[in-house]
Amino acid sequence: MVTNGIVDIFSYNFLINGYCKCNRIDEANELFDEMSHKSLVPDIVTYNTLIRPHTAQELFKDMCFHGQQPNIVTFSIMIYGLCRKGNHDEALALLTKMEKSQLRPNLVIYSILINGMCKAGNINDARKLFSSLSENGLQLNVYIYSAIMEGLYQEGLMDEAYNIFRDMERGGCLPNDCCYNVIIQGFLRHDDLPKASELINKMVDKGFSADDTTTELVVHLSSNDDLILSKLRDRSKASECVNVN
């Protein structure tokens, strides 16, 4: 592919982004290679657009070699890719590198790490990271809380997960529908329907709705005439009416 009319970085970045959004990665890479033949040096936008889990490390090295400093987006993409491949030690090493630079990791990066550790069964490492955030005075968000609660209940640590759920408000973070669904699913998966029912009542009273997974678990554990299932259905219908209006 030779694009004779393109002469600046902005135009190349625009095209590369378009190809990537259409999942035409090979053509995007061809444009990337073509840039060097026109003596154009890719910038941070170019690299961030092209970075994918299977090419992340190679592009990261190339970026640094060409004097482009990784930014918060670069680190987020890199850490996400490493966690997806189960390379949590490398992801943590990258976090340490980031912390030593002038960039300060944000909650998105910490959420990616905690979620990745939990999915890999590294609950102790996830706990340590979660605790360190609070100790360092960071204002945690619902994504961090949801990730650690889900990890804990998957390891059968429902009491600890529920304690974190109750501590959210004291930490200045109000639970949203995602948090309620996560903790309710934990109790349902551990066959604690009474506690799940109590939380479902609170969730519905706050105007939140059950997601598909929560509803399926309730149906599985209760009869069709169960009061809590009826309440979920009523709330779902109310939400549909609001969306229509």
TrEMBL record:
UniProt-recorded name of the protein: Uncharacterized protein
Organism: Manihot esculenta
